[in-house]
Amino acid sequence: MDAFFAAIEERDKPRLKGKPIVVGADPKEGKGRGVVSTANYKAREYGIRSALPISAAWRYSEVARKRGLSAAVFLSPDMKRYSEVSARVTAIVRKYVQHIEEASVDEAYLELSFTGSYEQAEKLCRKIKEDIKSSEKITASVGVGPNKLIAKIASDRQKPDGLTVIREEDAEKFLETLSIRIIPGVGPKTEERFRALGVRTVKDAKKFSKEKLEEMLGKWGSELYEKLRARDDSPLVEEWILKSVGEQETFETDTTDPNFLQERLRYLSDGVYERFKKDGFKNFRAVTVTVRFSDFTTKSRVSTLKTAASSRETMYFEAMKLLMPFLDKRENPQRKKIRLIGVRVGKLG
Fold it and tell me: How far is Cα 160 from Cα 148, in angstroms, rounded to an integer?
């Protein structure tokens, strides 16, 4: 779906028609602490993108406003409404396609081999796009390809309201001119390493042997070797098994106040426990605590229990044991202030 959250807001609120829209945390006139969830295409013209700090989004909006453009409209997410629209869109897709992997609230993979050809697959996708547009008054962009990797990348090529078809024989050539960052799994740090070696495009990266990539990146290196050549055998997964439950919180002010941090840890642990029970799990064997410092350095620590546990108090106690070293020199020798903490339970029964 194209700028999904923002598109729903614009559709449902006529006063927002044609305006730059940012869905995410409260910017608090540049002092907000969260990030952008979604920005519509008008806001993207200002440089605002998903995952951008909301304070930076506010500054970009202010720069645009001072140039005489419309200031961005900042809205809080309404996940209940977005989930309802997502369910209706999925129901539309299921009228045409039997096998679907719902990758997120606004993205899915469709298995189209039954159509018999790329031409027929393209026709079917046009029907699906038109049905979504007429029923929900929002647009989707589609990529058709020989595997999930190519389909995913192709879906981003002609946004919004696009349809890009990449045949198997054209897939490797299609990737070559694109930035190495386009490959899922290549994040900022990996991109930086490649840039230091003079690698910017997929074609540049193909000069490395599989052995060299494995030496650089471990097991992921051999997977990357295949992806650079447009090869991807990952299956379509129709039912996901929930592997963990977690929550996190970014604070209004960076802090090392132990009383405040313990109180917020209790609040997060309670939230995780309620979700853990609601999702029908009986026990857990791993507790993870994540801490992000004021300089954005992020660390996670895990406690694996010898026997499965099921109580709220055990969850909180294990989380507290993991948090405490971050309040002294064991994990925080420079006494950096803490910006965010998170709690997660895994190895669920």
Answer: 20
Q: Is 308 exposed, middle or buried, given 0-12, 13-18 or 19+ CB atoms closer than 10 A?
A: middle
Q: What pLDDT score was predicted for residue 299?
A: 94
Contact 205, 190 (CB under 8 A): no
Q: Residue 293: pLDDT band by 50, 70, 90 thresholds? A: very high
Q: What is the pLDDT, as a whole number, of residue 33?
A: 84
Question: Measured between alpha carbons, how far is 128 from 151 in angstroms, rounded to an integer?
Answer: 16
Residue 142 buriedness (CB in 10 A; 0-12 / 13-18 / 19+): buried
CA angle 54, 60, 61 (to 5 degrees): 90
Domains of the chain: 4-75 (3.40.1170.60), 79-166 (3.30.70.270), 172-228 (1.10.150.20), 244-346 (3.30.1490.100)
Amino acid 114: pLDDT: 96
User: Which residue intervals of the chain are DSSP H helices?
Assistant: 4-12, 41-44, 54-66, 79-94, 118-136, 148-155, 171-176, 188-196, 202-205, 210-217, 219-228, 258-278, 312-323
Distances (CA, A) of 174 to 194, 208, 270, 329: 20, 19, 48, 51
pLDDT at 187: 87
Catalytic hit among 101, 107, 214, 226: 107
Structure tokens at 341: 């903490």
Cα–Cα dist 102/160, whole Å = 20
pLDDT digits (tens, 9 = 90+) for 198-244: 999 999 999 999 999 999 999 999 999 999 999 999 999 887 777 89
C-alpha distances (whole Å) from 42 to each of 16, 39, 73, 99, 198 are 11, 8, 11, 34, 34
Asked, as a colleague might, if the bond just before 160 is cis with ω within 30 of 0, I would say yes
Whether 107 is catalytic = yes
